[in-house]
Amino acid sequence: MIAEQFGDSPADAAATAHHHRAAVGEQSVLSLAQIGVTVGVALLLNALLVRTFMLPAVIVVFDRWLWWPREAVSDEPEREPVTASA
C-alpha cells in the first residue's frame, strides 16, 4: 500500500515528496504576499488617516490631560523667594 503511494524506490518517494512540496511552497509565497499587501495598506491608512485626522482630534479633546509634567496642585500659597541679608 505504501509502495503504491510513494513508488517502489527511494528516488520515486523523493520525487513525489518534492512534487508535493512545490505546491505547498507556492501556497506559502502567496500567503506571504497577501500578508505583505495587507500590512502595506494598514501602514497607508495609519499614515494618511490616523496621523492626519485622529491624532490631532484626540490631542484637542484631551489637551489638559496629555501634557506632562503637570502643574502641582497645592493647598499652600506660593512662597516668594527670600534674599539673604548680610
UniProtKB/TrEMBL annotation:
The entry's keywords: Membrane, Transmembrane, Transmembrane helix
InterPro entries the record matches: MMPL_dom
Record's subcellular location: Membrane
Record domain Membrane transport protein MMPL: where: 29-74
Main location: membrane
Membrane topology: Multi-pass membrane protein
Transmembrane portions of the chain: 35-62
Transmembrane as UniProt keyword: yes
GO CC list: membrane
Descriptive protein name: Membrane transport protein MMPL domain-containing protein
Coiled coil start-end: none
Pfam families for the chain: MMPL
